[in-house]
Amino acid sequence: MLASRTGTPRYAVGLTRVSTAEQGQSGLGLEAQQASVRAFTTEQGWVLVAEYSDIASGKDDHRPGFQAALARCRQLGAVLVAARLDRITRRAHTLSQLLEDGYSVRAADMPGADDLMMRIYAAMAQKERELISERTRAALRAAKARGTMLGGDRGYRPAMGPSAAAATQARRLAAERAAHRLTLEVERLRTEGVTGQAAIARALTERGVATPRGCGVWTHTTVARVLARAEA
Q: Domain Resolvase/invertase-type recombinase catalytic: where (predicted)?
């Protein structure tokens, strides 16, 4: 087993995030982040025991991948690692609360940052976003004062309406990715000697692994559906 620089084995949990479905479907944004997290944990001598992903805004603290990663960190006392700090959260108070609650958080692009530096960086990033938002509102107010029409019907019409087929395809791809990720969790349990759908369901629940719908309680039926989708 790998060991940290202090000689004590240390576990790490990876977290990646993109904001849009398009980025998630392409896989490019997530893959680049995963590569960065894996390289960083290897350099630190940590054991990367799990990886979680979200396709959601960094302002959403309830996204399933984020919550599942926190649950695994609590279970193992692991470090939460992301490629960049804003991949974990865009809220300074959320990061501060994580640190207050005893979580260890690290970002691959700031390898030497300690908890204090993390707090400062998050606060500065949030302040910059607030300033950008205020400058945007000021520019819109100035444009309105000049008589520029803002919003409303500009006469644009899309060439095609919403595509039900594209939406269905996006949902199918998301379900397949979730099934693949969860199948890996199930296979890991089987190698540890956990067999039977009911036993696997209990183990997944105890380890804080989120179900396909994002909740934390597994049943043997949920496990069967995941395995059936993976086989299909």
A: 11-147
Q: Can 57 be counted among the known catalytic residues?
A: no
Query: Which of 19, 53, 104, 163 is the catalytic position?
Result: 19
pTM of the model: 0.53
Q: In the chain, how many H helices and how many E strands?
A: 8, 4
Quick: pLDDT tens for 190-219: 888 888 888 888 888 877 777 777 666 788
In DSSP notation, 175-190 reads HHHHHHHHHHHHHHHH
Q: Are residues 108 and 203 in the same domain?
A: no
Question: Domain residues for 81?
Answer: 11-119
Residue 20, in any domain of the structure: yes
What digits encode the pLDDT tens for the residues 27-70? 557 888 999 999 999 999 999 999 999 988 877 888 899 999 99
Residue 81 counted as domain residue: yes
Nearest Cα neighbor of 127 from 77, 171, 92 is 92
